Amino acid sequence: MNDNLRIVIIEDDEVLRLGYQQLLFDIDGFSIVNTYASFDLAKSQLKADAPQVILLDINMPGTSGIEAIPEIKKTLPNCYVIILTVFDSPEVVFEALNMGADGYLTKNSSSEKIVEAVKDVCGGGGVMSINIARIVMSSFQKNLNSPLTKRETEILKRIAAGQTKIQIAEDLFIDENTVRSHVKNIYIKLDVNSKSEAIKAAKNNRFI
Q1: I need a labelling partner for 120 at 20 to 30 A (CA). Which of 58, 132, 133, 192 fits?
Q2: Element at 22 (helix H, strand E)
Q3: Where are the beta strands (DSSP E) in 30-140?
Q4: pTM, whole model, 2 decimals?
């Protein structure tokens, strides 16, 4: 019986995909079961692949990595998902973690860090790049008395910066109705009736 750790790579950049494959192929105890250029291509095969770890990009054709996480977890509840992406904005990081990602690395991570992350995640570790860990840590130090969730705070910041609901939805990889729902909750929590009142109340109370 082969006891190697079964790994699947989902990355649309062919050069990166082959690079990750070669990197992990050379590690004793690792087995690259399959690689895919998108989650849509991988979806029907994942159950048969039975990976224990998936390295997942975010920005791919079709279903994004963020949207793919809950689907992966439903199909493979015991599989660990490590995001490996260029995106390091707080809103994307927290969206991925909230969706169930077990680790989050940026693509400038060293080869050693990627290999270490694959090993550590299976031991229950929450693997992150240093810059991602800083984002997570700083989130616990801000807005401790705010009634707004992290997502609501991020959306209100973007509204204050002049973004439209459509722009916010695109940037955060969520649909426009979800943005509207968050805005409604913001108004209720801040006891306001307009965008300008919400921004003023949040700034006065240092929620944003």
Answers
A1: 58
A2: helix 14-25
A3: 30-36, 53-56, 80-85, 103-106, 127-128
A4: 0.66
